[in-house]
Amino acid sequence: MERCFELARALTALPSVSGCEEQAFEGLEKICDGIFDESYTNPAGSFVGVVRCGGKNAKALLLDAHLDEIGFIVSQVFDDGFLAVVRAGGVDPRVLSASEVMIYGKKPLKGVFVSKPPHLQEPGESAKKIELSDLYIDTGLTGKELKELVKIGDFCESVSPAVKLANGFIMAKSLDDKICIAQILRALELIDRKKLGVDVYCLFSAGEEIGGKGAVTGAYGIDADYAVALDVCNVYMPEGRKHLENIRPGNGCVISYSSTTNRALTTKLVNAARKYAIPFQLRGEPGRTGTNAHYIQISRAGIPCTNLSMPLRYMHTPVEIIDLKDVLTGAKIIARFAEDLGGENDG
To answer: Which of 19, 137, 140, 336 has its CA 20 to 30 A from that of 216?
Structure first.
């Protein structure tokens, strides 16, 4: 599991706010060094790595995890040295006040989200719902100094490096969905290349948080025969939703049966986990899974696609939490699933 943590720590340190994913490419190349037979990027902002099985006319398995993370775009630089920002993805303003951010202008610059302190609020103001427009970023710089370094359109992200908690849990920002990239990379390290009968295309896709542009364009370009979309999912919390009661960290990744994923391929994924006695959880969903599986399965003439999700607490906050055991067992499922594909009965 230490290798899973190393990958998670390195990946979550990469800046990749939606629309600015190319900032992560150089670091991603270094993290992936020696894993892929070839790699490339595309104009939509996605990174693709390929592992070749060596077989002639081999079928292709696509593994997708989105590279982008939620964050902010600078919308105003004030004369008195403050910044205003707008959302890039589904940010919850309630968790932002007093949290650190990194602004990527001419050079990285640390700041903090600030709001009017309680002592200066008008009566009843404290009961008001906090909106992003109520918050500003303070860097300590004067307006003149700030305008030399930061401009409208620069991006920002939360500052929350990966740390270990008790019982194999870790916490970081952007585990949605960097932890699934880590899981894919660990799966590739676990694959027995002699057993591999398919070419594996790993799509670290752009823009999932703002509409799935990376999955749409990436899946079209790869034109795979099979696909697995890997993402995070919410878990049961005390006094939480009843339909999540059986989805808990530490019990394995979640395989979804839904009306928009391919049932036969989903069953193959389930059978691989059962065959090798790898823990997993099942979930039935009524329609779209909320992941890139939807976009991939309607690409070109249709690509059989299934969904594997990492149980995660506190989604879309700077303190997302996962259990490392789920990273490793999920990687094993993907590795064994890939090894078992590509036989004569998979046509």
So the answer is: 336
